[in-house]
Amino acid sequence: MIISAQEGGLALVRQDDHMGQCGELADRWGGSFEAPPQAGEVRLAVAHHDWGWTPVDDALPYHEATGRPRNFHEFDLEEHARFYEQGYRKVLERSRYAGLLVGMHWIGLYRSRYGYDPTLTLPVPERLRASMDARILRLEHELLELRLACWDSSQSRGAFEAGLWMGYEWLQVLDRMSLYMSLGHPGRAAVETAVGTIRPALAAPAVEIRVAAPGDGRLLVDPFPFAEPFVSTVRRRHIPDLDYAGPAQLEAALAEAQPEPLEWMIAPKRR
Q: Which domain of life is it from (predicted)?
C-alpha cells in the first residue's frame, strides 16, 4: 500500500492501482521518444513490477508500533524480499524477458539501482546482511542465466544489453512518475523533482525527466515523452489519521472509505 498524509487523513493507493497507472503511462509513450526494444514485454514488466504486493494489500497489514496501516517502505527487508520474489516468479511464468526486468527492478532496490540512481536504495541492517547477500547473489546468478536465455545470438550482445537497460530505464521513470502522483494530489502544489533519466532513442544520450504539480490538476513533464497530453487516473481511499486499536478497527475504516478516482492532466511544461 502506498500511503500519504493528506487533508487531515491518510490516502491509501493499492499497488495494483499504481501498476495499472504505470501500464497506462507506457501505452501513452511516444512523440519524439521511442519505446525500448521488445516494448510489449517491457510494458508487461511495467504493469506488473509490484505484483507480489497484491496479497499484502489485500490483507491490509497493521503496524503495531504506529496503530496505522503499514506503508510499503515500513516492512522488514526479509518480508520485502519475499513479496518481491513472489511477484517476480509470477511475471517470469508469463515472459522470461519481462521477468528479467522485474528481477532487475527488484534486486536493484538493494544495489543502488545498479548506479542508475544511488540515492534510491534500501539499506540492509547488519543482522540481515549475510542472508540478504546470499539471496541477492543467488538471484543475480539467476538473472545472468535469464539474460543468456533471452539473448538471440543473431543480435550482438552489446545491442541486446543496450535495449535491456533502456527497458530498465523505462520502468524506473514510469514507476517514479506514478509514485509522484500516488503520493500527491492534483489539487495540491508539489515541488519539481527528477524521476529518472532515459534515452529518447536507443543510440541517443540519456535525458533527465522532471515532473512538477502546480496544484491545478496538471502534472507537468519536461521533456514531454508522451504522444500527446492525456488524463491519467489513480484510485485511492481516504481514512482518518487515527491511532487504530487493532487490525479490525482499521479494516472497518477502510471498508467505509469509497474509492476516489483522482484525475491528473499529464501535460508538457511550457518553456
A: Bacteria
